Amino acid sequence: EGYHGSAIRIVLLGQNGVGKSALALSLAGLSDRSLSVDSETACGEGYERTVSVDDEESAVIIYDNWKQDLSKLQCEVVVLVFSVTDRRSFHRTAQLRLILRESLPHTPIILVGNKSDLVRSREISTEEAHSSAMMYDCQYLELSASLDHGTTELLEGAVRAARGDCVGP
Ligand code: GDP
Ligand code: MG
CB within 5 A of ion ligand 2: which residues? Predict the structure, then answer.
């Protein structure tokens, strides 16, 4: 819209503490120098970058703290984040998915289980999250924002979903 033209807007939603801000930095390519995030890279409250996926460049903007009414959300992709170590955060993504399906019935949603590095405190299995995502026709990805594992796959998946390229759950 307007100033940002056809940039792909990716919005991260989920309970506090699941790692949205860490993930946003990682997706923005800033995880190595998170101490020096400045106004040059921050765009509004989002991070702007270009990314090459399938030999095509796309501008993306990553938003990690949507504070307004969810019914006013406008974006090309929603990433619903929970922590695999916190069942409540998993329930929260289910609630958000229901709300979003009302206002944004056609916007692709990607379910993300973060903190996969915390193996010993895991509360949600990959299988459970995966079958939940399948029921709602979402893609499921598991990753660790801290270790920067799986974040590239998420960015690529989000860009492909926004382009309307086929992405299975
Ligand atoms: P937000 O409230 O959703 O924005 O979550 P934050 O990004 O602020 O992260 C909350 C806490 O979880 C911080 O202490 C992060 O360092 C930690 N965290 C985020 N991602 C991961 C991860 O992948 N693994 C682990 N072990 N900790 C993480
Ligand atoms: Mg945050």
Answer: 20-21
